Amino acid sequence: MMRTRISRVAATLAAAGLLAGSVVTGFAGATTVFGSCPEGSVPAGSGAQCAVISVPMNHSEPDGPRIDLTVSRIAATGERHGVIFTNPGGPGADALGFWAQRLEVVPAELNAHYDRVAVQPRGLRWATPLRCASGPENAEGQQVSIGGGSRDEIKAACDAAQPGYLDTITTENTARDMDAVRAALGIERISYLGTSYGTYLGAVYASLFPDRVERMVLDSNVHPDWVWNEEFAQQQAAGKQRLDDLFAWIAEHNGDYRLGDTALRVYQNWVRLVSAQGGGWYANLTPPPASVADLPGELPEPLAELARDGFNGTVEQGGKLQNLVRTLISGGGSAQVPLVGATAVATYTRSFWPTFARAMSDANADPANVQRLLAIEGATATDPTGRFVFSAITCNENAVPGRPELIGAAIGTIASGGNAMDARADLVRAGLSCGGWRPVAEPVPLSGAALRTKPLLLQSRYDALTQYEGGPAMARALQGSLITVEGGDHGTFGRGNPAVDEAVLTYLRTGEVTTSHAEQAPLPTR
Fold first, then answer.
1. How does pLDDT run across 124-165, given as a tens digit for each residue?
2. Counts for the chain of helices (H) and strands (E), in that order
3. What does the alpha-carbon distance between residue 241 and residue 212 come to, in Å, rounded to a whole number?
4. How many Å apart are CA 299 and CA 420, to the nearest integer?
5. Contact 69/52 with Cβ under 8 angstroms?
6. Taking the complete model, does pTM exceed 0.90, yes or no?
7. Quick one: how far is CA 8 from the chain centroid?
């Protein structure tokens, strides 16, 4: 199916009566047939329709092999003012259901006046999934680990199924896919909403195709100079600060949750519960105003081996470390217990704080009662293909060289029972997440000089995933207007913050940004 073009797909399905839907025609005679979406991709009753669009696997070879991307669309319910594309982040997050999942939370004006389009990024399910299997043990097609180890072995495993595909999983190609979809839909210019990694994808798109951009909103921004090692290392310090804020808030509401009347006491309860659930080393976080000495918890392998024997530089030890670091920075659930997973979600979005505190209180009263924690953890669960795409993109285009000398610093932190997040940051900066995999693509130079309307950027001051510095840095790169939002929510538009939502709507209507500051969203009623 890698060479199938959209015209053939649409014609075949329509002739067979398999795709009942609408035909979209636009300038340049483009025709695309929309119909039902893949099972499980969008919520039922959302009004979303989907189409399959063929794009070049390698955009430098337009007549070469092709891949298929699935695209969703929800039509404006009123007078149409434009089309908004989106990407929710990752890299590796499903995009197809983004708009359908947010019908009730984005402002009604946006739903009324804009067609909302989401392009599923290449390499993910419903977009020619990246498949890499090798060796007799993977005869059933089991995915091999992408990101660390021998680049030649990994590439051979991927090329066996899809020759050359792995090297094309980059932000630039994903941006070019988006423009190919724009052309296939017959749209002259698009608006765009990008969140998290989606800000970087949007910035790349704007730099490559400035004449195709109408308006651009970038929410919770990647720092353009930190792609990618430093971006993930910076997450550790930001996450620790937001965790302290969470514990302090729970302490302020001790009458409701009975988890401690100071941040330190809440933290101590948290450590005890994480350790009881088997979290071990993941409880080793520096407590609010306390020392790092004598923290509980056993180290996971290979960190126990590294602290005991030191770093020996062997391929075996390096592979173990690479697997651990990839798990730490990509949110792999295998390393987490329910309380740790739920805590990570709560640090992203303040609206989860009351629900999280109640879930932690439930577990405190009955250690077996983790249903609420599991539900919170599952709120950000992704398909396994997301982890493959995450590794492929970040290793294919990582522009921040590894610093292996920092492994020693991580050893010292680990051996002394210090802050796990500090050790994680040093391991990430050491370059272990990609191991022997060397970049195959250079990041696109970012510029907003040719944009007809400068972008609007939103950045929370204490964002736990994209450090605040990313907002000003991206605004400088694209010559955009920055709104600083108080608090630490990761993703601020469509999150119950009237000031932010109104600023975005004003920008979409007029291209003007009338404020530079907004308070954080109010907490939902408990």
1. 999 999 988 755 444 445 566 666 667 788 888 889 889 999
2. 18, 11
3. 39
4. 10
5. yes
6. no
7. 33
